[in-house]
Amino acid sequence: MSTRTLIAIASLAALMTAPAVLHAQPPDGPDGPDGPPGPPPRMMRGMPGGGDAPGMVIPLMLHGAHLTPEQRDKVRTLMRANREQLRTLFDQLKRANETLASRLVGPAPVDAAALKPDVERVAQARQALMEHGLTIALGLRAILTPEQLAAVTQKRTKLEGLQRQMRDLMRE
């Protein structure tokens, strides 16, 4: 196997080990003493280079909307209802990533064809996680008012500007 192929496979595996969706409760925030209920810290890390995956939008929806107490209760209910499924999906993704990584660095010879089933399991786990995250994001969106959605949109635009500035700084 060529060095270029190994680097490509290793890069792919590294990207797949950075899931960008939900988990538990965010830290305290301006929405109340407990902050808004919602995604775990793992979700807030996101993918390299940012993006609009539900995992990137959900924390923004929770922290940028200044939820009312009634909305916080609805969000808690939504997140509790989805917590087990999310945990299961994250565990599946973690196992699939670990299997792929172990085979990549293990002693047995491998090539792209031999790794294809492992890569497909990672992709399927990520897809399931993305679809479930989308369901949750749509549930959150239904809880927010049009004014709150507008505020979230403004914050998202500001964050995108900051990300561009950071990329530009890294290029200097």
Helix and strand arrangement:
Blueprint (H helix, E strand, L loop, with lengths): L2 H14 L24 H5 L8 H11 L4 H37 L6 H32 L2 H26 L1
Helix pairs in contact: 1-4, 1-5, 3-5, 3-6, 4-5
Give structural attributes.
single chain, about 170 residues, mainly alpha, 6 helices, about 75% helix, about 0% strand, disordered N terminus
Provide a short characterization of the protein structure.
The protein is an all-alpha fold and 172 residues long. The protein has helices at residues 3-16, 41-45, 54-64, 69-105, 112-143, 146-171.
Radius of gyration: 18 Å
> Helicity, in percent?
over 70%
Work out the count of structural domains. 1
Provide the β-strand percentage band: under 5%
**What form results from the Cα inertia axes?**
flat
- Order of secondary-structure elements: HHHHHH
* Average residue pLDDT: 77
